[in-house]
Amino acid sequence: MTVWQPLVKTEPSASANPPFAAHELLRAVPESSPPPTPLVFASPHSGRIYPEDMMAAARLDTESLRTSEDAFVDDIIAGAPALGVAVIRARLARAYVDLNREPWELDPGMFEDELPAFAKSHSARVAAGLGTIARVASEGRPIYARKLTFAEAKARIDLTHRPYHDALDRLLGAARATHGLAILVDWHSMPAAAARGQRARGGGACDIVLGDRFGAACSPRLTGLVERELEAMGYRVARNSPYAGGYTTEHYGRPSRRTHALQIEINRALYMDEVTREPTEGLGRLAADAERLTRALAALDPSSLR
What we know:
single chain; alpha/beta; Aminopeptidase; seven-stranded mixed beta sheet; two-stranded antiparallel sheet; 9 helices; globular; disordered N terminus
């Protein structure tokens, strides 16, 4: 079956060359057809495009910024559309705008002008330099050579964050309308150092962390199913530490409103060399195992989660 790959129509930034869409939707059925499963997969941090307007203000080069990417995560879930899953993936880099943040989670210290009251944030993520527009890249290195303006931030958010979440909300709405509920899986990767610091159930450093906001974002039955499937494949799994789920999981995960959201964090050492940023043979295994997990989720009786 041919995979349907329309680009979401968003306005490119004025300096983008060539023009680009901020994100991409993938399905294995025409857009007008109802979704075959209640599953929606998202990959908000796998974008590889660094627009010119960002790089003109940056002190770091593209290679340095790429350490912030969830590299190859979109490749890991590439087989999902053929299994009836609607997939949304970012095309712009996380360092440009982080789609797994609240839209106006901004650090006032990054800007030369006063921010509107709604755009100021004192969250732990902002304090760490990792707001909607990140202040630092890996190892705490400042990204920008100058302060930005609020107009620049607003243009980025309007270009990327708003249309991405509008599209994601539509996908979830279509799943609920067809199947009575929606299951959102938000796919990410984590540095091997973060994985080594977390013990999986049964001991040993974890391979995968499942974040369900400590049970608030999805049914325990769903989290348990994913955990059992992954452990049966040989992965060491932890829950909610060090990652309990970000904005996407917290914002959309409303079991009482028929939407279940689960974040999956994959140890990058399983599939790539973090120094050279090249994929290893593990990438193929993970892609195959992601398809196996997808089949298990697609076979789940939706009534069991209600």
